[in-house]
Amino acid sequence: MKRFIPYGRQAIDANDVQAVIAVLESDWLTQGPAVARFEQSVADYCGAAHAVAVNSATSALHLACRAVGLGPGDWLWTSPNTFVASANCALYCGAQVDFVDIDPLTYNLCPTALERKLEVAERAGRLPKVVVPVHFAGQPCDMAAIAALSRRFGFFVIEDASHAIGARYRQTTTGGCNYSDLTVFSFHPVKIVTTGEGGMVLTNRGELAETLERLRSHGITRDPRSMVGESQGPWYYEQIELGYNYRMTELQAALGGSQMARLDEFVERRRQLARRYCELLEGLPLQVPQQAGEVDPAWHLFVVRLDLHHIRRSRREVFESLRAAGIGVNVHYIPVHTQPYYRALGFRAGDFPEAEQYYREAISLPLFPALADAEQGLVVGTLKEAMR
Ligand SMILES: *Cc1c(COP(=O)(O)O)cnc(C)c1O
Predict the structure, then answer these.
(1) Residue 62 in contact with ligand 1 by CB distance below 6 A
(2) Whole-number Cα distances in Å, 255 to 24, 172, 200, 221, 261
């Protein structure tokens, strides 16, 4: 039988398996030493002072919003070209969501559109408290521009770097929070590093890290300095705010820690495959990802935009021919504001035309470290055939 080539897939080796087995045979399945070790390895890699591991990036985004005090009456702005979690985190906090249209070349939130929208919002007295730039496909946003706007207009920046562990921007590593308050990673199996399910928040600010750690575990503190009352004894803890159980298990952290040893290798192979896709697709009626200056993307996704005027096929026809041939293409993303839940909040088709136009033309091709050159050739050959 012909092998189905997925669009993304985890890369698990014998060391990863051993690391998880070692946890199973140890004293700690949760709240042990593996989580702290994994946090340290990600913090060190990125150059961030603090890292807090949680059970998903969705939880990480929620905690990041809570840590900066996002709540009722506040606004969070993000890109419409993202997974719904980048926006939902505001709604969990009782805040409201709005979007900023994308740059038609990088598919990231457009800093010029952001500036224009901020100027209008300032006049209306409705500036956002938080902006969430999403490093789409693993390509860092124009963070210097966004950081300058955050200083001018006074909002917090939470980077949704779910696609971008291992990416570089100017002289910095994504996750180092050199241009933001907090950065979030996802460790879902299709992402670059996996823990099965998992996420992490990074920050350079100690007080934010302390809040994140407390919120991850019910809002409980065991530190007498944070308590409202006197300690009643060695067993004593206090719940001082409303938190959650968003903890990562030791099994997940051991897998993540083991995966971190190969992060550079994963990203190098992804970059190699992305370069080769660009070469193989040259001259076809489609647009390959455009790299902005001063970035080295981690390439979580490789998206092509079909030139629908040129080819006499719809995106759906091309998509379905590839799927029928065993090529696991996908589409990233349905613009969040067009989801029924967001339409019910008042958003309309046409609100963010660049993201909507991009969505009509986009197809994500398979990209993961174990994708063989021959398989990549097959993907390109099948795509050519499908567009003919
Ligand atoms: C995957 C993803 C998330 C959510 O990650 P989970 O770990 O599955 O909760 C959030 N934002 C973006 C951009 C993602 O790709």
Answers:
(1) no
(2) 12, 26, 14, 28, 10
343: Cβ–Cβ under 8 A, 6 or more apart, which residues?
A: 337
Is the CB–ligand 1 distance for residue 163 below 6 Å? yes
**Residue 36 CA, distance from chain mean position:** 22
Give the tokens for residue 365: 């091709």
* Number of other residues whose CB lies within 10 A of the CB of residue 308: 16
- Backbone dihedral angles phi then psi of residue 99, each to the nearest 5 degrees: -125, 160
Share of the chain above pLDDT 70, in %: 99
**β-strand partners of 99:** 78
Indicate whether residue 186 lines ligand 1 (CB < 6 A): yes
Q: Which residue has the tokens 């090529």?
A: 327
- Which has more pLDDT, 123 or 2? 123
Pick the closest to residue 202 from 330, 314, 39, 56 (CA basis): 39
* Contact by Cβ (8 Å): 202, 50: yes
Q: Which atom of ligand 1 is nearest to the CA of 300?
A: 15
In this predicted structure, what is the pLDDT of residue 2? 64
User: With a 6 A CB cut-off, is 81 part of the ligand 1 pocket?
Assistant: no
- Cβ neighbours around 44 below 10 Å, total: 11
User: pTM score, two decimals?
Assistant: 0.98
Reduced to 3 states (helix: H, G, I; strand: E, B; else coil), residue 304 is strand
Would you call the peptide bond into 333 cis, given omega within 30 degrees of 0 as the criterion?
yes
